[in-house]
Design brief:
Number of strands: 5
CATH class: Alpha Beta
Radius of gyration: 16 Å
Largest sheet: 5 strands, parallel
Number of helices: 10
CATH superfamily: 5'-nuclease
Low-confidence stretches: none
Helix content: 55-70%
């Protein structure tokens, strides 16, 4: 069975109500695909969720833990639980370091792609074009539409 690393951009766009992201997530869930995230993706998604729900900046959220505590976070936790979690280790860190140096990826993006490389996932599902060059050269196919996902699930 094919395996998929899901980038935070897809989940965040789903939270923002974009149909293309919703369709991808629904297709993953309905197909019972091996769809993975890592702690980097979870952290990015939870943080963006907090910003969307409160309308507040990082600095405000950092200084107001009571605001973070008072927000109902169960919907985002439930959404993230729909994915399997790929653990991070020192080999992923070393690969991420190489990706930063080779392709100029930012740290979180490099950790996400390094996770896909380490676990030998077939695909990275993302809306972030920063991954395109590095994923291609690292042998990870990028998916960014429902149609591409459906083809990958069939093949």
């Amino acid at each position: 069975m094919r395996s998929f690393m899901v980038d935070s951009t897809v989940i965040v766009e789903h939270l923002k109500g974009h149909d293309s992201a919703r369709e991808i997530i629904e297709t993953l869930v309905e197909s019972e695909a091996n769809a993975y995230i890592n702690s980097t993706v979870a952290s990015e998604v939870i943080f963006i969720y907090l910003k969307i729900k409160t309308g507040r900046s990082y600095i405000t959220l950092k200084k107001k833990p009571s605001l973070v505590k008072s927000l109902n976070k169960q919907p985002i936790y439930d959404l993230l639980r729909m994915f399997k979690f790929a653990e991070t280790n020192e080999f992923i860190f070393f690969t991420a370091e190489r990706l930063i140096e080779t392709y100029g990826l930012l740290p979180n993006d490099s950790m996400i792609l390094a996770t896909a490389i380490f676990y030998n996932f077939d695909y990275l599902i993302t809306f972030d074009s920063d991954f395109l060059e590095a994923a291609k050269y690292e042998g990870i196919k990028v998916i960014n539409t429902k149609k591409e996902l459906e083809r990958a699930l069939e093949g």
